[in-house]
Specification:
Elements: H1 21-46, H2 53-59, H3 62-78, H4 93-102, H5 105-118, E1 123-129, E2 135-141, E3 152-158, H6 165-168, H7 172-182, H8 185-191, H9 194-197
The chain binds manganese (II) ion.
């Protein structure tokens, strides 16, 4: 059993003008693909097999963890964006939880943006749900993934330079602004756990 690169859930041109087709072609077709291929190569070398990428992220160490987590993180990233995204979340459980956890959607976006801009080096900025149902913003370095801490990731922004260098050069701020034009609130709401919602 080998892992497959998941298809993008939209056309290469669909996120323009915020994220270009060229960026997606490289970021998905080269970077993400390379992580998936490396996981498959490493499992083959070890004579192991696995069909649950999240389980591998929770249990693997070293280079296998790095590549498995990068494969998982990118899959969440593509589904954190949508050509129909942006704006503010519609009234509902996510909007309520953001207001409860951060004060308001605006306060959440400001906190997330601050962390994305201040994050040093390569990494990821996440909206996660804790066991108690509350939401938090966290950043992780390199491949690190909040699944390891038992958190439920709802949204993620890739702040590795390869995510924006083609379109924005070194301007991470412009890239994070583009992220907000595309953010898929509906997908994030679907990821909120039913257990927490039923509390
Ligand atoms: Mn990336």
């Amino acid at each position: 059993m080998t892992f497959k690169l998941p298809d993008l859930p939209y056309a290469l041109e669909a996120l323009q003008p915020h994220i270009s087709a060229e960026t997606l072609r490289y970021h998905h077709g080269k970077h993400h693909a390379a992580y998936v291929n490396k996981v498959n190569d490493m499992l083959k070398e070890r004579g192991e097999s696995c069909d649950d990428l999240a389980e591998l992220v929770r249990s693997a160490d070293g280079a296998l963890f790095n590549n498995a987590a990068q494969a998982w993180n990118h899959a969440l990233y593509w589904t954190s964006l949508s050509p129909k995204g942006g704006g503010d979340p519609k009234k509902g459980p996510l909007a309520d939880a953001l207001a409860e956890s951060f004060g308001s959607v605006k306060d959440f976006k400001e906190r997330f943006t601050r962390l994305a801009l201040s994050h040093f080096g390569s990494g990821w900025v996440w909206l996660v749900q804790n066991d108690d149902g509350r939401l938090a913003v966290v950043d992780t370095h390199d491949a690190a993934c909040p699944l390891r801490e038992g958190l439920n990731p709802l949204l993620v922004c890739d702040v590795w330079e390869h995510a924006y260098y083609v379109d924005r050069r070194n301007d991470r701020k412009a890239y994070v602004e583009a992220f907000w034009q595309l953010v898929d609130w509906t997908a994030a709401e679907k990821r909120m756990s039913t257990a927490a919602a039923a509390r």
